[in-house]
Each structure stands twice: as C-alpha cells, then as structure tokens.
Amino acid sequence: MHYQLYYWPGIQGRGEFVRLALEAGRAKYADVARQSQRSGGGVPALLRGMDDASLKRPPFAPPYLRAGRVLIAQTANILQFLGPRLKLAPADEAGRLWAHQLQLTVSDFVGEAHDVHHPIAVSLYYRQQKAEARRRARHFTGERIPKFLGYFERVLQANRRGRAYMIGNAPTYVDLSMFQIVAGLRYAFPRTMRRLEPDFPALVALHERVRELPNVAAYLASDRRIAFNEDGIFRHYPELDTSR
Amino acid sequence: MHYQLYYWPGIQGRGEFVRLALEAGRAKYADVARQSQRSGGGVPALLRGMDDASLKRPPFAPPYLRAGRVLIAQTANILQFLGPRLKLAPADEAGRLWAHQLQLTVSDFVGEAHDVHHPIAVSLYYRQQKAEARRRARHFTGERIPKFLGYFERVLQANRRGRAYMIGNAPTYVDLSMFQIVAGLRYAFPRTMRRLEPDFPALVALHERVRELPNVAAYLASDRRIAFNEDGIFRHYPELDTSR
Predict the structure, then answer these.
(1) A166-to-A100, A182, A205, B56, B64 alpha-carbon distances in Å
(2) How much helix, strand and coil, in percent to the nearest 5, is found in chain B?
(3) d(CA B212, nearest CA chain A) in Å
(4) Close Cβ partners of A170 (under 8 Å, ≥ 6 residues apart)
(5) Which H or E run contains A55?
(6) Which residues in chain B are contacts of A132 at CB distance < 8 A?
(7) Which pLDDT does position A244 carry in this prediction?
(8) Which of A241, B49, B81, B233 is most exposed by smallest CB count within 10 Å?
(9) Which of A164, A239, A173 is nearest to A208 (CA)?
C-alpha cells in the first residue's frame, strides 16, 4: 500500500504522530502538502481534499490519510488504522483498544499543550491572548504536565512485560507518541522539564529508546523531520515556561 | 453481557454519550457511582477503579466501562467498543472508522464546549476565570459552534442513503451524540441557538428524530436522565451566551 498523508507542510503539529508511525513502519508514503504545487501538492492540495463538495466522508481538519479508496481523519483514528498494518500495534483486540485508549489520552494532552498558547481562540494570534496564556501556562506546567506524565509513567511501570515499552515488549505507535511528547515538552518548556524529569525516569528512558530505533533515528536525521517552531503545537515562549 | 459504567453521578458530562448508547441499545448496565455506597457504588467506587495500584491498564479519567474482564476508558473508545455489540455501528470496517472519526470530532467539540467556562484551568472555579470565559465565549458562539455544526450538517446532507441519520439508514451512536450536542447547546446557549438553528435544518431534524426513538424517549422520561446543570459540560451562564 502507498499512503498519502495530508498535513500542514511547515510544522510537526498533530501530523507528526502519523509521520513517526509511517517512518518507523517503513511505509511508502507521500507527504502531499510538502510536495510542489506543480506536481499536485502543496497547501492547495491539502485544502482541496477537505473542501471538495463531492466528498461523502469529508475530514473536519488535517491530518488526514488516503489509503487507496479509504480517506481517514483524526490523528488517533489514523494511527489505529495504520497500527496493525505497520506492525506497530498489539495483535489482540483488547491490546488494540488499550493502545487506542492511551493514544486518545495523548490527543487530550496535545490539545491542552496547544491551548496553552491559544487559551481564547484559534482565530487569534498568540500575541493577542498573551495575558491569558501566561495564566493558563502556570496551571499547565504546575498541574497538567505532571498529571499526564505521571499517568504515562505509571502505565510504563505497570507493564508486566518489562518497562521497555508502553505495551507488551515491542514498540507500538503509542511509544512513538511518547517520544514526541517528551521531545515537544523539552523544546517548549525546557526549564519545567529540567525540574520534572527526575520524577519520570521510565518515560525519559523510553524517549531515548525510541529515538535510537534505526528507522526513527534515520528519519530524525533526515530533512523530512521538520524542526520545532512557533507555528506548531509545542512552541517555545520563554514567558510561558514558568517553573515553581 | 452486563456492563458497569463508571462516571460522575451528578452530571451528564462525557458519560452521557455512553449512557445514551447503553439505553438506546437496551443494554443491561449499572451506573455504578449512582448506586449507594452501601451496595459498593458511589464516588468512592469510581475513584477506586482508577487509583487501584494493581491495575495494569488504568483509566486516566472517567468515564470508563467494565465489560467482563475488559476495562475501557475514553468516551469515543467506549462507544467504538459498544457500537457493534449494541447494533449502533455500521457493519463494515470503513463504516466503523468513519463513525469513530465523527465521534472523535464530537470529542473535540465537547472539549471546546467545556473550555468555554474553563479557559484557564480545570482546577479553578468558573468564577475565578470569568473574564477569560467571556472572551472565549464570543469566539465559541461566533465561530466554533457554526464551524462544527456546519460540518455535521454537511455530513448529514451528503449521506447518500438519505438524510435521516449520519451514516447509512439506521441510527448509530454518532446520531445519539448529535442529539446530545444539540440538546446541550440549546440548554447552554439558547440565544445563540435560536439565531443559528435555521442554518442547520438537517441536524435539528435529526435531534428530533433521535429524541423520539422509543428507547431514547423512555430514557429521557426516566429519572436515569440527569438534568443539565452548572457542574457539567454544557452550562447555562447567560453572560456567555453572547450572540452577534
């Protein structure tokens, strides 16, 4: 199967969770909006794929994935679809539900990480909601990061097959997402993470383990990996990296 | 199968999407935290089910569902699990992915509806973030409700099997969630909804159609249906029901 991923070309954002799975699973795929408009790519292709009035099952927002005749949106849903196909999900139904459950908790966390810099409206710039962002950030760094990372650490520690991965003893798309969350938080909130990381030793070790998986390492070293920046989900605004 | 649902006993909240499915599908279930503590219910039972250190696959937050030996959390994941078992989901894999994709978009919308009254932190009361809530509400009522309802209306209009339901020609859990969203928005934002509803005729008709399904109608008339209130997701604060 040859996949087409549709996501904003200048950011990691939510699409990165899918890119990591495609790369770790050595899938053949095109990152459509990063290809030239002349070859049918670019942002116009991304928008066309959502706005096309003839679509019976339109995506609400990027990322979305084309797999033959199937068009799938919602990050966690895409990963649920790709997981078994790329050997990045447990084999049994209960294991797959569990992987998806964890991924939906990742989605919740990513939504909160986004709203730290956009607490009022996505239609406004950060600078237009800076006062509210500062206030929200204190709660995010003080309460929410510890709560979510504490939960993921607990899951990792409770994995009876060892603490190498979140589920069983082989990497799944959930581990890739854990890597991305630690990487994103370190970029956006370095002071907070320096303070918090000692509390989450298994998660920090997992980040390292995933980073060194050969397919992941090759991807991270390539120009396919977009650098973190202040248009994405994880943004480094020093004034929001408040640490008590 | 006899199910145990675990959710906060005093609110509809996210649990209501699951309650509606259990009721519409005539499932045998216990709403555990609404039962007496003497009989092993109440909020202590809800908290025990998450905090139990021996759990290998702990929920992050309510709602969660026990189905025999399986413990499942995350609203959309619970519905994905229940859908086929209660005959409230399409039969084919592509249809199920599509139903789940829509449900995840419902989850996104519900998250935004919550954050209207809690734009800064869940750990603060509404009255402690009222100024920010007012500002966020203007964007929610002016931009976000129209965007999400417009999308759901488009999906309904595009359903080639007729516009009676979101998918195919029989009700699924997604239709139940559409009912709940319209009902919740009418409760929380009556002025805004009076202004907007003419733009979403198919969705308004769907709300009515679902409300009259015999199992749903019986549930809504029973004392099992908790009334909307200001502890849930959809809260009526007149000062947030700003309509331009």
Answers:
(1) 12, 14, 12, 11, 20
(2) 60, 5, 35
(3) 26
(4) none
(5) none
(6) 119-120, 132, 135
(7) 60
(8) A241
(9) A164
Q: Cβ–Cβ of B120/A136 closer than 8 Å?
A: yes
Does the pLDDT of residue B162 top 80, yes or no?
no
What pLDDT score was predicted for residue B27?
98
Check if the interface score ipTM surpasses 0.85.
yes
Task: Answer whether the bond into residue B63 is a cis peptide, omega within 30°.
Answer: yes
| Whether the Cβ atoms of residue B209 and residue B202 lie closer than 8 Å to each other | no
What angle, rounded to 10 degrees, do the helices at B201-211 and B145-158 form?
Answer: 80
Across the interface, of B74, B101, B111, the residue whose CB is closest to A101 is: B74
Determine the pLDDT at residue B215.
Answer: 98
CA distance linking residue B150 with residue B199, whole number of Å: 8
| Chain B residues with CB-CB distance to A123 below 8 A | 139, 143
pLDDT on residue A22: 98
Q: Report the alpha-carbon distance of residue A97 to residue A101 in Å, rounded.
A: 6
What pairing do the DSSP bridges indicate for beta strands B64-67 and B70-73? antiparallel
Q: A34 is written with which tokens?
A: 């990063």
Cα distances (Å, whole numbers) of residue A150 to B95, B158, B199: 36, 43, 44
With the C-alpha atoms ordered B96, B101, B103, B104, is the resulting torsion angle positive or negative? positive
Cα torsion B15, B176, B103, B7 to 10°: value is 10
Residue A102 contacts residue A17 (beta carbons within 8 Å): no
pLDDT, one tens digit for every residue, chain A (244 residues):
999 999 999 999 999 999 999 999 999 999 999 999 999 999 999 999 999 989 999 999 999 999 999 999 999 999 999 999 999 999 999 999 999 999 999 999 999 999 999 999 999 999 999 999 999 999 999 999 999 999 999 999 999 777 799 999 999 999 999 999 999 999 999 999 999 999 999 999 999 999 999 999 999 999 999 999 999 999 999 999 986 6
Retrieve residue A107's tokens: 């989605």
Residues B63 and B78: their CA atoms lie apart, in Å, by: 9
Q: What is the DSSP letter of B67?
A: E
SS3 B164: coil
HSE-CB for A186 with a 13 A CA cutoff = 12
Write the DSSP symbol of residue A228: P
